[in-house]
UniProtKB/TrEMBL annotation, chain A:
Source superkingdom: Eukaryota
Keyword Ribonucleoprotein tagged: no
Pfam families reported for this sequence: Proteasome (PF00227), Proteasome_A_N (PF10584)
Span of domain Proteasome alpha-type subunits: 8-30
Coiled coil: none
Stored InterPro entries: Ntn_hydrolases_N, Proteasome_alpha, Proteasome_alpha-type, Proteasome_asu_N, Proteasome_sua/b
Family, as annotated: Belongs to the peptidase T1A family.
Keyword Zinc appears in the UniProt entry: no
Protein name per the record: Proteasome alpha-type subunits domain-containing protein
Keywords attached to this entry: Proteasome
Alphabetical list of SMART domains matching this protein: Proteasome_A_N
TrEMBL record, chain B:
UniProt-listed CDD domains: proteasome_alpha_type_1
Pfam families documented for this protein: Proteasome (PF00227), Proteasome_A_N (PF10584)
Protein name as catalogued: Proteasome subunit alpha type
Major subcellular location class: cytoplasm
Subunit structure, as described in the record: The 26S proteasome consists of a 20S proteasome core and two 19S regulatory subunits.
Leader sequence residues: none
Boundaries of every Proteasome alpha-type subunits domain copy: 6-28
Length: 247, 283
């Protein structure tokens, strides 16, 4: 970050002399300081899990959800600026709806993600806007089977077997790599996801957090739904226990 | 001229990934006088402190009715609030027109949050300089939401915004667990106690500077409230009976001191006030 203060980092429409666009890198910084979000692509479905940092005990726990539904079979979770995430969710819903109108079938996730990538990229071109301060994990079960993608502030998107964004992404990725994702069932994956979120959460440094889980697959007949309360609580409890024995 | 290289424009991220203009907009909310909101299983209420510019002037308007089932209290730039509340009224009307039902409170708050987000991302505008507490009732019961210029909105059991609101928040955090089963009268008393915490020294709540907004069935002190308990604002004379129900501050503190160690010491609010940085800018 040697170019800070040289004036090459004040606009998304300015390259630095060595060809970087600092505003996009700073947008990534926003994401890197936010709560961890992970996604698991397993043999018969997708799990999304969020470390929802709770900034006040006056918040209504069940309300203020961070995982959003884009289409019947598509879910997304963002890390970064919350309001930007909701903007992107609305756009994703429009894209999915347009695809349905045009082709009369449910949109494949890849298609929605690519269109969103174009949209996000447009915000990296002009000085009149700033890039999105969010990375988003998209999950779906479509005609190609389970699919998992990340869209970054640059507009780039990749498919993943296991995805992690936000503050704890490095530790989360290491944990995800240890799993045999292709062999896990959805139920097993829920417990793994909960365990990873608890593992990456730094109790000493961080505020309180709440675990939020959703899934798509066999268990939900292909719909994107929150993980049922009892299973969610069981996963939460087991994750705490696992962590205590681990330490 | 600027405090910071990266703060002149809301389309610029700082190297730490922050948006300074948006953070400054959040400060604008703290310049406005305090508003408090809380809810029980049956009611959601708002309380606000109104300012007056002088003896000859009237007091400002702090609450707006949006629809039969929704009302707001504001802190910050009043003109921005009027733009946003007009928009909320349009959204509420359009829901009645298109879907033949009152708009869910959550949907209404999200609609202004989405509108505010755009102003944090595009050049040539500024973020809104006003925060809302929104109360309302819908199919899922009474609700309380906070809306902020950053485009965020959250649902709370109780919340306060505006100048010195941290002291009110401290009160709410101490008592919120009992709110769910409160009667409307008790809920209002808690609200007034919380609002009192945000007052400057030697000021007190009067029928002139206090507004109360209610969504839910009528209180024993109210007349002519429709059966559904639609949103209404109490100001002036009708507020008096509630102000009289308050426990004087000295008595309340004495009781707290007598209570076992679980209670905070009588000057418990002092450290919180120290953390409230906008105190000097309050008026």
């Amino acid at each position: 970050m040697t170019s800070i203060g040289t004036g090459y980092d004040l606009s998304a429409s300015t390259y630095s002399p060595d060809g970087r666009i600092f505003q996009v890198e700073y947008a990534n910084k926003t994401v890197e300081n936010s709560g961890t979000v992970i996604g698991l692509r397993v043999k018969d479905g997708i799990i999304l899990a969020v470390e929802k940092l709770v900034h006040s005990k006056l918040l209504v726990p069940e309300s203020n959800r961070r995982i959003l539904t884009v289409d019947r079979h598509i879910g997304m979770a963002t890390s970064g600026l919350l309001a930007d995430g909701r903007h992107l969710a609305n756009r994703a819903r429009d894209e999915a709806y347009n695809y349905r109108e045009m082709y009369r079938e449910s949109p494949p996730l890849k298609e929605v993600v690519q269109r969103l990538g174009l949209y996000v990229q447009a915000y990296t071109l002009y000085s009149s806007v700033r890039p999105f301060g969010v990375s988003t994990i998209f999950g779906a079960v479509d005609k190609t089977g389970p699919a998992l993608f990340i869209v970054e502030p640059s507009g780039i998107s990749y498919g993943y077997h296991g995805a992690a964004i936000g503050k704890g992404r490095q530790i989360a990725k290491t944990e995800l790599e240890k799993l045999k994702l292709a062999e896990l069932s959805m139920r097993e994956a829920v417990f793994e996801a909960a365990r990873i979120i608890h593992l990456v959460h730094d109790d000493s440094k961080e505020k309180e957090f709440q675990l939020e889980l959703s899934w798509i697959g066999e268990e939900t007949k292909g719909l994107h739904l929150p993980v049922p309360k009892d299973l969610c609580e069981e996963a939460d409890r087991k994750a705490r226990e696992a962590l205590e024995t681990f330490e | 001229m600027y405090r910071n290289t990266y703060d002149s424009d809301n389309t610029v991220f700082s190297p730490q990934g922050r948006l300074h203009q948006v953070e400054y907009a959040l400060e604008a909310v703290k310049q406005g006088s305090a508003a408090v909101g809380l809810r029980s299983k049956t009611h959601a209420i708002l309380l606000a402190l109104k300012r007056s510019t002088g003896e000859l002037a009237s007091y400002q308007q702090k609450m707006y009715r949006i629809d039969d089932h929704v009302g707001i209290a504001i802190a910050g730039l009043t003109s921005d609030a009027r733009v946003l509340s007009n928009f909320m009224r349009q959204q509420a009307m359009s829901s009645r027109m298109v879907f033949n039902r009152p708009i869910p409170v959550n949907r209404l708050v999200s609609s202004i949050a989405d509108k505010a987000q755009v102003n944090t991302q595009e050049y040539g505008r500024r973020p809104y300089g006003v925060g809302f507490l929104v109360i309302g009732q819908d199919k899922t019961g009474p609700h309380l939401y906070e809306f902020a210029p950053s485009g965020n909105s959250y649902e709370y059991y109780a919340m306060s915004i505006g100048a010195r609101s941290q002291s009110a928040k401290t009160y709410l955090e101490k008592h919120f667990e009992s709110f769910a089963d409160c009667t409307l009268e008790d809920l209002i008393r808690h609200g007034l106690h919380a609002l009192r915490e945000s007052l400057q020294q030697d000021k007190e709540l009067t029928i002139n500077n206090t507004s109360i907004g209610i969504a839910g069935p009528a209180s024993v002190h109210e007349k002519d409230v429709p059966a559904g308990g639609s949103f209404r604002i109490l100001e002036g004379e009708p507020v008096e009976v509630f102000l009289k129900s308050m426990v004087p501050k000295e008595t309340a503190e004495a009781q707290a001191a007598e209570a076992p160690a679980a209670e905070a010491p009588p000057d418990g609010a002092a450290p919180a006030q120290a953390g409230d940085q906008d105190v000097s800018m309050a008026e």
